[in-house]
Amino acid sequence: MGELGRRGVVLLAATGLVAPLALVAGATPAQAASCTKKTGPYQKRVEKFLGRPADGRQSPADCKAIRAFQNKHGIRPNIGYAGPVTWGVMDLMNKQKAVGKKPNKAGRCPVNRGRIACVNLTLQISWIQDGSRLVYGPVPVRTGRKGYQTRTGLKKIYWRNIDHVSTIYNVPMPYSQFFDGGQAFHSAGVSMWNPPGSHGCVNMTPKDARKYWSLLRTGDDVYIYGRKPGT
Q1: For strand 133-140 and strand 153-156, is the pairing parallel, antiparallel, or unpaired?
Q2: pTM of the predicted model, to two decimals?
Q3: Mean pLDDT lowest for which of 1-10, 181-190, 210-219?
Q4: Number of Cβ within a 10 Å radius of residue 3
Q5: What CATH class has 3-23+103-225?
Q6: Residues identified as active-site
């Protein structure tokens, strides 16, 4: 693809890039919400996850702990209610932790292509492997929300820009490595568990995005599989 065509693809697909936190649906200032006294449907499981007494009944201390978790990860409404979104994030964290250092245990990511970046959309994790050898990760990622799903299949990194800025949202996207139109690995200034997800890109923490930048090169393979919860 020529330079003009390549840049055109990136610009046209910028809607696949992460939106600013302020654009997340339902986002409100944390201080504007009040703590609820209602017991949520996932109360006991949420209490257990947070190390609270798992009695299944809401208390002021429970609400404070739940609300702190919601504020940390951009979950709205942030009123300390143990609902499905909050539990969904916690459940995903538990599943990610259970993977340990064997992210490709099921053999879904190809081991016959040398160095490759793998993305498991179902578990929202990514890692780099070389053959069957784990090089880096697994690390949590934030992929495309409903309507903007990160596309699956075998890709290749075709363009890298360490200081890329989205022309749609005017949002910095450090360490961008594009692998499918406007979809790319890049650093994002939100929690990796911030719902509902990106506009198609694979968001990473600054630390992990920098590491991917140092380990990957133009032409390296990327393999994406699974389905993000809720899409």
Answers
A1: unpaired
A2: 0.85
A3: 1-10
A4: 8
A5: mainly beta
A6: 186, 201
